[in-house]
Amino acid sequence: MDINLNDLLRHYRSNPYEEHEIRAPHTGVVKFRAEEGQQTFGPSGKWLHKPGTLLFLLERENNPKRITASFNGEVAGIRHELEGCFVEAGTLLLTIRHRLSKEEIIDRILTEVLSIFPAPQRARYYLPPETASQMDKKAEPSIFLKPGDDAIIMSLMKRDTMLKYEGTPGIIYKVYFHSGDMVERDAPLLGICPPDNLKYVQKVIQRIKNEWEE
Amino acid sequence: MKKEKILIANRGEIAIRIMMACEDLGCDYIVVYTHEDRESLHVRRAREKGPGKRTYRIASYKDPNEIFAVADQAGATAIHPGYGFFSENFRFARRATMRTRPITFIGPRWEVIRDLGSKINTKKVAKSLGIPVIPGSDSPIYSEIEAEALAEELFLQQREQGIRAPSVLVKASAGGGGMGIEEVQHLDTFRRVYRRIQNYAKRQFGDEGVLIEQCLRDYQHIEVQLLCDRHGTVTHFGTRNCTIQSTGRQKRVEVAPGFDPEVWDYSFDSLRVLKDITGHSVNLAREVGYDSAGTWEWVVTRDGRPYLLEVNTRIQVENEISACISRIRGREDTPVNLIREQIRTALGEKLGFTQKDIYFEGTSIELRIVAEDVKRGFAPWCGTITRFEFPQRPWARLYSHVPADKPYNIPTEYDPNLALAIIWGKDTGEAVERAGEFLLGSNIEGHNAKGEPVITNLAYLYDRLDDVLRF
To answer: Which end of chain B, N or C, is more open, meaning fewer C-beta atoms within 10 Å of its C-beta?
Structure first.
């Protein structure tokens, strides 16, 4: 598949930001720790073991939970009126303006290049245990899928269904979800690359790496 | 009754029925809901109740910290867990009663839930009282080799009994409500099924323990409804027949009473069997000091042999058909409501009646109306409901969380249950006839993301009415 990479890069360069709404992950009393305009950093370290910037504390049942940033950016729109208040799950607390990284740009552009296997329903998804274990063992993409192969376990309405792959035969180049994640309908689950396209995909990645400045 | 505020820690129609019971008793209540349930009628009904905040959005119905945090914030004095979620979680019940700010758990004492909530413990206690139980493991199995050896023994026993097509059930030990159960008909395929259930159990319940037991093929699934208080009163509200189930062993049509010899000619003394299992259930309840509403689940084979399956230490979805056929002498003007009675007993009130005061009248049928494709293994259907109409009849009640006045997206996080219909007739024939009339008058429309029309089990329920109470 050919794409107009120049157009895509121009599009992302014109607005390389994403606004992320940070909501209360559960109920509790909120105490903000970040300030308006503060730079945030996501987890770091070899194993991402160092937590990101502390955004707020959410205390529930006498347990204060530290809610930290999961990506780099700039804090905006802190809802100071909620300071010290009990908030319900899902309450909007602040936003982070995040500049897309080179890897994120690659991921987004690859959705245009790879053959995408999308989520048929809003559901939780898991890789079949055999696929997950093969992926853990091999650094490079190597698992080949053809139509009819077991692709993904969909856990919907408390039932597990094995989804058969439908689409262009190829290698699983990209997995777009974490096992057990809730994925919205039509969001990409797998990015499949036909073996003939591998060189082209690698060329695209290389060009983005060369041309995208962080 | 002192001023109580009950937190309803559940969703859907059971949350609505608990609200109704609270209103009956003059208790205030609050409800919790998740993002996916924001359009549910249980939320709307609570919001429209009147002044004061009654709805709290939480991250999950399965997070105990969420429930307790909201309970404290709202000043709740008691928690009604409904069914599923925390209803049979003794740790939750224990935490409720033993925390710094204690909250009444509406259900049995936590020790009772611990002892009876586990199929394994129940089996052990029942065996000690001489109550018949299904042959199989009486503790969770974590070893494939051990599981296969037991399965082999069960296959052998069945062959010795002359059973032509023996089979065993592999069950997630921590499961319930029919989830995580598969049948194995050949020992060769046992390991594959065992691994599948083990993986499923680990994913869904966080415990990969598995139970193995003989699969009884030709049986009726009978339940005994008990109601006890904290002052030693033990009563039963008769039996139910829950044999009509989906392939995933989810109940679809339930009938009270459990058998009707006026309608079908059983090869055994059906009334005697119902009396026996009721007696066994009452004995077990007395033995463990049962003090709430609960259901004793049995299977009865074609030749009339009963086996205790498990005890559900909670209110059951189908409780209302038992209530519907029950009358309490001197209180005939007030319909029996087991949820209301369960709340009263948890708050320490005496039942105020005994078994002698309870009598039964007629037959009641529950129809579980679900968005599912029965032709594709009862596969759940996801989409939007745009029309939701049911006949209004004096002999029918409908409970649903689905709004009828605007489109409703079925949340994919939960079962696609749409409604429960409770039908009453003066006898089984009339109840069946009325259930059929109700189903024929029901109208559900909707579509999925591809624009395809809604699929429900209405036609299936209608077809299965011929099978109620019969082997």
So the answer is: N
Contact between residue B182 and residue B169 where contact means Cβ atoms under 8 Å apart: yes
Q: What's the CATH code, domain B364-467?
A: 3.30.470.20
Give me the pLDDT at residue B1, please.
Answer: 57
Burial B172-193 (b: 16+ CB within 10 A, else e): bbbbbbebbbbebeeeeebeeb
Closest Cα in chain A to B181: A159
pLDDT(B2) > 70: no
Nearest to B255 by CA among B30, B5, B468: B468
Number of H helices, E strands in chain B: 13, 23
b/e sequence A179-200, b meaning 16+ C-beta within 10 Å: eeeebeeeebbbbbbbeebeee
Place of tokens 């591998």: A198
Reported as a single tens digit per residue, the pLDDT across A130-148 is 888 888 887 777 899 999 9
Q: B200 vs chain A: nearest CA distance in angstroms?
A: 8
Looking at residue B257, its pLDDT comes to: 98
Give the contacts of B24 (CB within 8 A, at least 6 positions apart): B337, B340
B453, B447 Cβ separation under 8 angstroms:
yes
Q: What is the pLDDT of residues A65-108, one digit of tens each?
A: 999 999 999 999 999 999 999 999 999 999 999 999 999 999 99
Rounded Cα distance between B226 and B231, Å, is 15
Domains and CATH numbers, chain A: 17-99 (2.40.50.100), 102-211 (2.40.50.100)
Active site amino acids of B: 314
Q: Report the alpha-carbon distance of residue B148 to residue B133 in Å, rounded.
A: 21
In angstroms, what CA-CA distances link B303 with A181, B270, B338, B469?
A: 49, 10, 32, 15
The CATH number fitting domain B5-106, selected from 3.40.630.10, 3.65.10.10, 3.40.50.20, 3.40.50.2000: 3.40.50.20
- CB atoms B413 and A159 under 8 Å: no
**Do B12 and B34 contact (CB within 8 A), yes or no?**
no
Could you tell me if B63 lies within 8 Å of chain A, comparing CB atoms?
A: yes
